Amino acid sequence: MNKERKIKGGVCAAEGFVAGATGCGIKTGRVTRDDLSVVYSEVPAVAAATFTTNKVKAAPVRISAEHIRPGRARAVVLNSGNANACTGPNGLADARAMASATAKLLRVKSSQVLVCSTGRIGVPMPMDAILKGISSLKLSRAGGTPAAKSIMTSDTFAKEIALEVTTHDGHFRIGGMAKGAGMIDPNMATMLCVATTDAILSGPALRTALRESVEDSFNRITIDGDMSTNDTVILLANGASRISPSPKIFRHALDIVTRALARLIVEDGEGVSRFVEVEVRRAASKADARRAAEAIANSTLVKCAWAGGDPNWGRILDAVGYCGVKMDEAKTDIFYDDLPVALGGVVSKTPVKKLRQIAAKKAFRVTVDLKVGKASHMVWTTDLTEEYVRLNLGE
Amino acid sequence: MNKERKIKGGVCAAEGFVAGATGCGIKTGRVTRDDLSVVYSEVPAVAAATFTTNKVKAAPVRISAEHIRPGRARAVVLNSGNANACTGPNGLADARAMASATAKLLRVKSSQVLVCSTGRIGVPMPMDAILKGISSLKLSRAGGTPAAKSIMTSDTFAKEIALEVTTHDGHFRIGGMAKGAGMIDPNMATMLCVATTDAILSGPALRTALRESVEDSFNRITIDGDMSTNDTVILLANGASRISPSPKIFRHALDIVTRALARLIVEDGEGVSRFVEVEVRRAASKADARRAAEAIANSTLVKCAWAGGDPNWGRILDAVGYCGVKMDEAKTDIFYDDLPVALGGVVSKTPVKKLRQIAAKKAFRVTVDLKVGKASHMVWTTDLTEEYVRLNLGE
């Protein structure tokens, strides 16, 4: 019987991981906060990662994808303030230089260092400041929270979590930090996550666990439907606990970490006033269920209605109608939490006042029952507020 | 040699067409403005129409699609204030009753009457008021503008245009009215267009011309990416001019009408402060060019940047990257009007001040040159403003 207990420490909660952060003034040239950090496993670790599927990939994504190919890594160097995206060959050289400088500091191979950047795009990295910053880093077990803070951009709070999982054989730990899909003046949203564990896992087991867990967490969140050039999720496992959990036990713990961080990202989305869980049920296929849920979650009109506390169902039905899935308006039921707002495609008898109370809450659930098949899919999303627009007006 | 001249009269500019409008208090029960109209050809006419491809179709769309099947129609009855959408079997009966009442007034067959509705969805039609309204309608050649006004919802001005086209054989006329993709409190956007011509056209020629012209006009505009349940474009041709223009001459005139109305719809979009023409060039296929242009035009982040007068290119490149088309960041050029903002995927040397001046204009052009093929596509779109969100907060 395994048991999870929340503990402190974030990415340094697991044995053998240390981290540190410092300020380099990456965005403005003035040092006002930490914007650079390193997470490091003191012993060799297997590693897995998932990256943005955007065809426009930032330089650090390209370098990290190259470095992680053999399935091992010792460290991750991260910065906020500059995404090192759309920076051409110079950007690639800069990302490599960040890995090399980190490798030198830690006395590991450059190919064992992964790189994550977030911030402005199309702007050269201030490499002098960054390299100086890397060389000055002090890593320790207390570095988890400083590292989590250093990657914040428009996030309003640092996002981290750690668990101790007790199994028959003893306990292992898993922790993680993330930064959210907030827009970075003047450019784009990025989701970064670094997770660490002291469990013993094979490379293939780690990759499978991460891929599936990301599918059920970060790949289910959508704020504005725009996918960044820098999105990266990294998981390092160094075996320092000497516990080798079953795939099921490990996956369960990893899911708690990824889902908690994914939820925090949505809740801290820019200008967000509602957290909405959208579930599409009884679709003709998994692909249809996903497409319909995402169409609802990304509909500008649906999101505006939620911002207004409007338990709108016409815009929801409209989105399901245009997204191309198999559906029959006359069969479709729509619920806010457990109350039907439309049954068989026409308005229900639920008092509007009760529905309005739900749509005015900070968090609620919208369920669409298509009744044409057996597949379902759930996504987490937000409303679209005037504040969101204001934050994203750019320069 | 044909020559087009703009004339007055809208849908009544062409010979043999009359129209009329009246107020029924459809939305609120109180008569404050005209909200019902009929456009009528005094002689038999061939007819073509295109309807929303949304699987959720409003009752009037279903009835009109049924009535137009033989390719002939004499009249269109239109109302604002209620979309008669998501209204189940009662809605279908109501749409049929509107056609029947109009047919009775005009002494034509019910199957020769098409129906268009726009406004709130999921709400029963106030049929007593509507039927009384229809029976009281007075039609005349002066009815074009009143009809155009009666279909407005959140439109800030009536949209109509008419042309007289001089050919070798004499002149024919073509006119049209439209209502825009503004949101209707508390529900959804609808685009309606009725065009009329006194040219002689066969049914197949009319259908081809309309289909192609809609493809190059209304199907190239996007404000929020949400497609309504009620979108309808109708074209009636009654031959009263006794002129039979070549397909090319007719198509040219029809394109002027549909493009002008499409542009007016975009310019009058809710909360719009920018009109943006987005062109994607040298894509691998027509489908890719369209997909990339629409991804840019529908990107929440790109639209927010435009609202702020930000000549953003990172968000544009990002949208092209995630939409799934063949592209190579290192080949991609992006222009605001004629000035490059990014060349080969990295920032250009164009002074930012000059680019900002363009992005702050009321209308500008964004061109993305992918350099991977030969296909291009152009769409018209808008920015996304706080005002848009405010207007769409719902109840």
Q: Any overview of this molecule?
A:
- The structure is a homodimer of 395-residue chains.
- Chain A is of the alpha+beta class and 395 residues long.
- Chain A folds into two domains: 3-267, L-amino peptidase D-ALA esterase/amidase (4-Layer Sandwich); 275-391, ArgJ beta chain, C-terminal domain (Ubiquitin-like (UB roll), Roll), CATH 3.10.20.
- In chain A, 31% of the residues lie in helices and 26% in strands.
- Chain A is built from eleven helices and 16 strands.
- In chain A, a hairpin with a 2-residue loop joins β12 (333-336) and β13 (339-343).
- In chain A, α1 (59-67) packs across α2 and α7 (286-298) crosses α9.
- In chain A, 62% of the residues are buried.
- At the A-B interface, α8, α9, β14 and α11 of A face α8, α9, β14 and α11 of B.
**The first-level CATH class name of the largest domain in chain A:** Alpha Beta
Terminal Cα span of chain A: 54 Å
Largest sheet of chain A: 6 strands, mixed
Multimeric organization? homodimer
Number of helices of chain A: 11
> How many strand segments of chain A?
16
Q: Whole-number radius of gyration of chain A?
A: 22 Å
Uncertain spans of chain A, ≥5 residues at pLDDT below 50? 183-188
Shape of chain A: globular
Percentage of residues in DSSP E strands of chain A: 25-35%
When the domains of chain A are counted, the total is 2
- Mean pLDDT metric of chain A: 93
- According to CATH, the homologous superfamily of the largest domain in chain A is L-amino peptidase D-ALA esterase/amidase
